[in-house]
User: What shape does this take?
Amino acid sequence: MDATTRGAARGQGIEATRSGRFRLGGRPAWIAVAMGWGLAWCAGVAGAEPRPAPILDVHLHALPVDFPLFGGPPPHTICAPFTTFPAWDQRGSYPEQFAAHGSDPGCGHAIVSPTTDEAVMRETLAILEELNIVAVTSGPPELVERWRRASPERILPGISFFLDENAPSPDTIRRWHAEGRLAVFGEVAIQYQGIEPDDPRFAPYLAMAEEAGLPVGIHVGTGPPGAPYLGFEHYRARMHSPLSLEEPLRRHPQLRLYVMHAGWPMLDDTLAVLYAHPQVYVEVGVISYILPRAEFHRYLRRLVEAGFGNRVLFGSDQMIWPETIRIAVDAIHSAGFLSEEQKRAILYDNAARFLRLSEEEIAAHHGR
Ligand SMILES: [Zn+2]
Assistant: This one.
């Protein structure tokens, strides 16, 4: 059932179980009959099966399964997480060896994508519904719009942004934001093109975002392993450092910006930026499911223990593998060094503050 239907049903104290059967307020229907309808409505709402506490995912994608990044026709496999990253034997092609890595012992846990755009959307929305996630979703505008129409309560529209001949102008982005068609300017993926955030070509976009109060999510850090050999010839390891954001941040002190993938593995640079620029947030993104879990936890632990647990956001970076959302959420839940309060901060509260959600929106997410 789609989110709209579910929302309407919930208002009447009716819930669908995961098997698709309906029951009233989590109780067998005969109790409702015995108690009388008026009383049953109240009891039904109060006694409904608790939904999981809400999650804000600030980094979800609506991408076509044949998106060029993945190479070739679907299905595509990803390791989630990797046990070891590929070791390229240069006598053969890296893209081929990387693609084959999913069936290699070095891949700890391979996930195979669906083969159609429709299936990616359907399976992703089902997981959002089940885990009670509202997600900032980026991709080609027509696909994001399709997902938003399918689940208006769960999808906050973003955009996949590259600085190329198809890039919308700053004025177009400002208009989309004003019209409610764009909640976040991100994922800004210019790093894949070898373009630094301080590049003059990107400057008008930052000025627009600051002036319009439009939150920005920028890819800093982790692309696929071996990105310069997967067609991103200008991708460079040194661009994983969020220090590249310093000058834009100083020029635009009102800019609301989060660093996607938390600048992994440049931990010291990331801590320095968080310390020097208290308006900046980081988001875990793809490192929550491709890094060996011990490394992800070590990185997250340092961010939190260094005093920045109030500026870490959850993002799944789900691309065309819906199951990665569960792995990303579990990567937070399984972090034994986090208190329940710290987990809630990362999974919801920090993003609610960063996105400046209203009390009404927060209450609605909590089913209040
Ligand atoms: Zn992404």
